[in-house]
Structure formats: C-alpha cells, structure tokens
Write a structure and sequence with these properties.
The protein is of the alpha+beta class. The protein has one domain. The chain has a three-stranded antiparallel β-sheet with strand order 1-3-2. The radius of gyration is 12 Å and the shape is globular.
C-alpha cells in the first residue's frame, strides 16, 4: 500500500481533521468535491492529502 492508499478509521469529522491536519470546513469541502470519500467509518485519505499538499504549494506561490 502506498501513501496514496492511506485508510483511516474515523468516527467523526474531528477524527478526519486530526488525521489530515486541516479544519472541519476543509473536510466538508473535500467531501463535497469528491476528494474525500468513505466506506462507512473507513476513509481513504490519500487523495485528500495530495489535495491539501497541492493547495498549500499553490498558495505559497501567491504570497
């Protein structure tokens, strides 16, 4: 399993926020955009980590 296929057990959005190191608003946005999807309480967070990394990199270009 590579970093892209990271699965976590999350009981709620607080658990996801902690696992990804972002706000609950960012979690909700990624869910709405289809970047973050669940299989019950198991969450595939690899794509969300990629998304957050790329967003941080792009944001640093504009500062």
């Amino acid at each position: 399993m590579n970093a892209r296929n990271t699965i976590v057990l999350a009981m709620d959005q607080d658990d996801l926020s902690e696992a990804l190191g972002c706000s609950s608003e960012a979690i909700e946005s990624m869910q709405n955009d289809g970047v973050l999807e669940s299989q019950g309480q198991l969450w595939e967070i690899g794509p969300a980590r990629d998304y957050l990394r790329d967003a941080a990199w792009a944001d640093s270009l504009w500062h």
